[in-house]
Amino acid sequence: MASQCDVAKRAVDGSTSEFLLKDIAIRASKNEYDENHNEEGIINMSTAHNESVREIITEKFVIVNGVTSALSAMAYVLCDHGDTILTPSPMYGAIPRDLVVQSGVKTFPVYVSSKAEPDGRKPWELNVDLLEAGLENAKQEGHNVRALLLVNPINPFGTVYTKQQILEYLAFCKRHDIHCLIDEIYSASIFDESVESSSVFTFHSDELPDKEKTHIVWGTAKDFGMPGCPFGACYTWNSRVLTGLEKIVDFYQIPSFVQTAVAKMLEDKEWLRWYLPTHNKMLQESSTTVMETLKELGVSFVRPTAGLFIWADFTNIIGDVNKDTEKQFALHCLDHGLAFAPGSAFVYNELGWARLVHALPKAKVIEAMKRLKEACATFQTRYAL
Ligand SMILES: Cc1ncc(COP(=O)(O)O)c(C=O)c1O
What we know:
Layout: H1 9-12, H2 20-30, E1 43-45, H3 54-57, H4 67-78, E2 84-89, H5 95-100, E3 106-111, H6 128-140, E4 145-151, H7 163-176, E5 179-183, E6 214-219, E7 232-236, H8 239-248, H9 256-267, H10 269-296, E8 300-301, E9 309-313, H11 315-318, H12 323-335, E10 338-342, E11 353-357, H13 362-382
Parallel strand pairs: 1-10, 2-3, 2-4, 4-5, 5-6
Antiparallel strand pairs: 6-7, 8-9, 9-11, 10-11
Bound molecules: pyridoxal-5'-phosphate (PLP).
The site of pyridoxal-5'-phosphate has 14 residues, from helix 4.
């Protein structure tokens, strides 16, 4: 007779044992690189922590968790257990967990292509035809799609949708009477001055095709380099969504001293006028250092204009790319003291990609790139085809 599980099914469904990203981060955290005290340690380019600003931010805030909870809470309110949210992919790998664990909401990936497509799509472009096809496929597979989730700026690309694109996606949602939830956690980390913000907060609410079904989440973890700070916010124009959130908000409380400190920080306009450009200049510099190394290595990448990372194609280094060799390459780099997240951690159907977080102090980025070059050279020697 099959024995009954000792805990609820929901507690063990969607096991995170395959969550390579987490495994890599754990190994990296057990042996952290330190310029003075642990030169042999691992440099962590895996976790999107904005470490580059740590020194300037600690002057303003005591660093102490947010959008993970905001996504979970919004999924709880917008969907019923078993419903589905469409998610352009590759995507931030924790999203399926964030939506399913407490709220029982599934994700259905809509894969963008790394190549230009015959229908005129540019590499990585998400267009409405792709969303329509994704929605149709999801329905045919029996999913009850209740929302589209966008991350803007995009993790893992480090690029920003245009305002026109966001409006098209919102119009798609209105046509199908589904919600659009936008995670804007990197919205103040646009470091290319030629790129305009397409945060929904910059739109006039009259421009929104369906204001009642447009919702935004944001938090301090990325733009302010405060991972672990329990501050996230949900913004909605819909009073029923607000009522739903109010019912569960007690489970997601932010300590009052954190609320006070964040409010003080966000109200300090003079400090923000200094902090935001300084933070973005740091991201510009660290991304440039990584791009230069990738070019030297002949590794192609998506040129980032925002966010804390670079999405790069290591096919030429890996050689015979498959799930195993992609993972082997990431683990080989880890053995060389460099942690980063392989593409498979981002729910993606193409192989050979990886995301490197560049938001680190300058000296660490330089050392990380030295290690990347060594690791690439030795990987090719050891696994030479
Ligand atoms: C797109 C996105 N949303 C949410 C999170 C998690 O945010 P928090 O640390 O505020 O829970 C991350 C973290 O990497 C992220 O990249």
